[in-house]
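@here heads up, posting the sequence + SMILES for the NAP run so it's all in one place. Ping me if the SMILES looks off, I pulled it from an old spreadsheet.
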Amino acid sequence: MTVRILQFGVTGQLARELLGQAKDFDVEITALSRAEADFADPQSVVARLQDAKPDLVILAAAYTAVDLAETEPELAFRVNAETPAAIAVALGQQGSALVQISTDYVFDGAKGRPYVEADAPAPLNVYGASKFEGEQRILAVCPRALILRTSWVVSSHGKNFVKTMLRLAGEGKSLKVVDDQFGRPTAARDLARFILSQAERLSKAPAGDAVFGVCHFANAGEVSWKGFAEGIFDLALGANAPTVGASATADWPAPAVRPMRGTLDTTKLENVFGVTPRPWREALVEVVAELQSEQRSAA
Ligand SMILES: NC(=O)c1ccc[n+]([C@@H]2O[C@H](COP(=O)([O-])OP(=O)(O)OC[C@H]3O[C@@H](n4cnc5c(N)ncnc54)[C@H](OP(=O)(O)O)[C@@H]3O)[C@@H](O)[C@H]2O)c1
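bot reply: prediction finished. Complex structure tokens:
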């Protein structure tokens, strides 16, 4: 059975990977860009659902500017909570299944151990609070919704840590990277392939099925930003990798406070879906190889 998917978001990291990987799965994706469905305007987005009768809706559009959100809270909440909630109300009535992506930033990072789905969120910043409100409002009205929390998303496109680190290394600057914040890097491709691999199951599962509710997805392995930077340089630059100095979060005052250790536990993913995400280093190999091949073709 070909699963008919309506996807919000076209240009983002996850959105592009969903579209790029779809060929390997029995799915047909219709994707709407911001110009076609602006999440700043909930009613116009809901109007897009009226004629579509998708088996599954994937929200790959989100307000992701973590620092900027501190000065644009109203917009962040509209895009990350109000519009997803309005979509969920419509889907709750229509009966279609929904996948929303959330974040490790719903947690305050003070637990001292990886977070399981049953842990109470306590976001430290506006972005995290807007995503958590989105989760709650969706789950309150749409019984066939899967909220996938993920962390430290990277790919060969868009803005992300891998691209920033390689740009800085290319500029030959001495590098100091935060060594006291920990998490699990996640390839947008792995997340996309997981969602697509579950599309048929999600589209058929009845309300109350274990596939719905909150679940964590992140590549395996906990690391600090400094350790992640070293892993990136090791893969991309080998013997020419620059030395990375350690710095503390306190050395980089930013508008939004980040969790120190928002690491996600993925045991539920393994139990419910039978999926064990591969180590982040393995996933990173593909991201780095793609960036290097793009660089070679541009040269
Ligand atoms: N990136 C991370 O490290 C990270 C970590 C944890 C969780 N997540 C979550 O994972 C999901 C995917 O993240 P990502 O990294 O793919 O994000 P991304 O690369 O920043 O892409 C965000 C997407 O949302 C769209 N968008 C933004 N504002 C919009 C609006 N008002 N109306 C419609 N579309 C809008 C963007 O479109 P334009 O190109 O037009 O701006 C873009 O397609 C998000 O839900 C995010 O919260 C991300």
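MO: The two ends are 44 Å apart (CA to CA).
MO: One more: The mean pLDDT is 95.
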